[in-house]
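WP5 quarterly update. Target: Lytic murein transglycosylase. Source organism: SAR86 cluster bacterium. Length: 394 aa.
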Amino acid sequence: MKPTILFVLLFSFGVTVSAQEQSFDEWLEQLRVEARSLGISDTTLTALDSLEAPLERVLELDGSQPEFVQTFSRYMGLRVTDRQVARGQALLQQHATLLEEVRQKYSMQPQYLIAFWAIESNFGSNTGGFSVLQALATLAFDPRRAEMFRREILTALKIIDEGHITAANMSGSWAGAMGQLQFMPSIFERYGVDGDGDGQIDIWNSLPDIFHSAANFMSSAGWKGDERWGREVLLPSDFDFALAGTNTRKPLQQWRDIGILRVSGGPIPVAEMQASIVIPSGANGPAFLVYDNFRVTRTYNSPIFYALTVGHLADRFSGGAAIQHMPESEQAMSIADVTEMQEYLNSLGFDSGAPDGRVGSRTRSAIRSFQEQQQLPMDSYPSHSLLEKLRNLF
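Structure tokens (predicted):
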């Protein structure tokens, strides 16, 4: 069976072919020609000889959707446990000297590095069992995101060619994210650091390389070592939920004037900082005042849930309390539920895009516009009560 590859660049001939049908072996040979043109040695390119036809498991994982849209409480609960907190605190002590060295160089607080390490690979115990080259070849051969993953596999070959890791030991996730940091090859190339001075960048086994590389990545993205990520807060009873979301940024003084409080009931501190209000479970869940470091965290992984979890886990490592207002019975929306909601919103003139069961920015914008029309709290949150309200209009 020969899958169709769209817009394949035939570097050996210098032309672009559209809708070119190729076997995997033909595609692999073109990749080899391109890699050789970039200066990658024939010795390194022998690693391509062992690659098999595209792995169905990788394609399944790339194209699959979970049965339910995971709630914030479920997402957080799976990643922030008493056991994880205790282990992170112990590792902070165990590696205190190295972490202080990294903090001095990159101005990144140790608890955040340990939080990234925990979430990305469970402190290095779960780095993925796929061959990075095989996974990237599968995704680069598939037409959906071929160009992006073609660049990644070429970069992975360059990393091998430079002697940082062997092809056999270059393991990672189904998407090609590598090592204890789960860096894509392009991130490794730009931000990887030889922290132990042995001439190699080893994010699979060397903790100095792992911590220096992560801190370098975040520092380069704008991390501020004298600021926290954010904090849980209390909203006033008359809070205008149209102000929630990362698109709205205000000085801390303005949020204080609006009536935002610490969870203790005291006023929030004031500094020369911009912040946003994030409500991951809607109007009835916890609220967070998030700062610049929260935005920087999202360059590592963009979902709001991810950045909140990194920040909260770092706080817990430092002795902070659990989230105070986590919903007790947050109910997940199934893909079918979200699809139905999108269809209703589109029918009413609120553009949520093609109904696909995924809650993205376009769907949230449509929800907010509908809530505004219905004089509901404009929290952009997809819920069963909102779906029922939409059903009643039809």
